[in-house]
Amino acid sequence: MNYLHHYHAGNFADIFKHFVLLELIAFLQRKDTPLAMFDTHAGAGIYDLTATPSQKTGEWKGGIGKLWESKAPEWAALLSLVQSINDDGNLRLYPGSPFIMAEQLRLIDELTLCEVSDGPMKHLRYNFGNERRIHVHQRDGYEALVALLPPKTAKRALIHIDPPFEQDDYARLYDTIPKALHRFRQGVFAIWYPVKTHASALPFVNKMRKLVGDDEKVLNLSIMTGPENTLAMNGSGMLIINPPFGFAEHMKPRIAKLEKLLQQN
Ligand SMILES: C[S@@+](CC[C@H](N)C(=O)[O-])C[C@H]1O[C@@H](n2cnc3c(N)ncnc32)[C@H](O)[C@@H]1O
């Protein structure tokens, strides 16, 4: 496993993913019943944009760098979260999904974080290891998900799946999602995927729709931030299974605005 998210933290794809994730949590928390949250591919939880990996790629400049300059109310929640960890007003730290999800936990909610690599795991244990409502597992996220569903403490679950897509992640998703749905039909799954061209992302989206077996239960959100070509990631997508009622209509204008802001030069 060579993937190190530090090189990409805060890039346009992260902003899209974390914006959708935050909006989804807010929507689900409109109900005051407990919510179990899972982050199957957690990463380190927080990233220093001044450290060598971030500086080497500079990818964050096309993501959080742009958002930081934008005062639009639509992403005020994500921005204020980023501001909360950069309290001297200078952008240095960027939160990963574990931090974002942990910050949204209510007393009745729980969060399970899975990660396989030692480096990110050290940070996860340090930052979240002593939190009563957060469970940190060094464990394969796909296998853990099937084993841990249905949640013990809640009748509702939000499952964030954010693989590196380096090796067999598509195959593992095709294998895991039907099993996870079999264990917990009503789970809300938010699965991030990379987009090179619209056409190249279609087989994944169509296959997932087929596996779920009901188009109404699948919402596909995506942005394209650069000219389509098959050599690089020019867009970012999130496939949501069992989206809450009204979420698609809520997100569409916001996603369109975000896509404009994140256009790559
Ligand atoms: C894209 S990064 C996660 C970023 C994070 N979700 C965020 O938004 O801040 C993918 C992470 O998954 C981890 N990983 C790879 N395969 C895994 C697996 N089978 N189970 C759990 N974690 C895995 C990698 O070590 C890496 O830290």
Describe the structure.
It contains 10 helices and 9 strands. The protein has a single domain (5-261), classed as 3-Layer(aba) Sandwich (Rossmann fold). The protein has helices spanning 12-28, 52-57, 64-69, 76-84, 97-104, 118-128, 141-148, 169-183, 198-212, 247-261, and strands spanning 36-39, 46-48, 93-95, 110-115, 134-138, 157-161, 188-195, 218-224, 235-241. With 265 residues, it is an alpha/beta fold. The protein has a 7-stranded mixed β-sheet with strand order 5-4-1-6-7-9-8, with helices on both faces. A two-stranded antiparallel sheet has the order 2-3. The protein is globular, with a radius of gyration of 17 Å.
Overall residue-averaged pLDDT value: 95
Report the β-strand fraction as a percent range.
15-25%
> Structural class of the helices, strands and pairings?
alpha/beta
Describe the global form: globular
